[in-house]
Amino acid sequence: MNVLYEQAGSLVRRVYDHRLSGPPVLDPATHFPDAPRFTEAWRELRDEALEVAEKLHNIPRFHEVLPSQEDISANDDRDWRILIVKAYGARIASNAKLCPILDRIVNDSPDVLSASLSFLAPHKHIPPHRGPFRGIIRFHLGLCVPTTPDGRPAAVLNIDGCDYRIGDGQSLLWDDTYRHEVLNDSNSVRTALLLDVRRRGMPWDMEVLSRVVIGLVRASVLLTR
Predict the structure, then answer these.
(1) Any idea which architecture 2-224 has in CATH?
(2) First and final CA of the chain: distance in angstroms?
(3) pLDDT tens by residue, 193-216
(4) Helix 2-19 and helix 204-224: axis angle, to 10°?
């Protein structure tokens, strides 16, 4: 299954890489105008996430949700747990009920295709990898991020060789088809909101292909629920 996923992902990446270009980090004002809806509500979103985290053992590990990602999720004995509220347009009602504020904001943001709360265990390392699909871009909002002794965010997101430290209430919009990895270099859980956002301004043929890919993934999510 992992081999099939990687082969399919590589094929999709090649198509998009041939037709689209852009930097690893993108301007939210241009590519995700709804970003302020989330950044302005980050404290309320943090409170919801911390309430969910009180029963963290009930939240599945990432590879339990997506077995094809076992190599990056179960690469060590430390957890990466994820609560999916929306997946490629399919709302996960039981999880959405746990996060009503997040659910409402997501519903008011039509470009948001997926929304998840990500809980990274202390010293968890997500090894280098690439996302398969350039038709979406990733929005990362820090909700409860541990800090180093000098006050910097202790969780490091490395994208295309550059380190980014995204603290509480801070955000980053980026293209996850670039090679990236994550390390929570602390003794506490790092909590973040991850959104998959529809890419704007693509050529018409890429827009059509993206709609097909998104529709197929949404259908597979609905069939496996």
Answers:
(1) Sandwich (2.60)
(2) 19
(3) 999 999 988 888 788 877 887 777
(4) 160
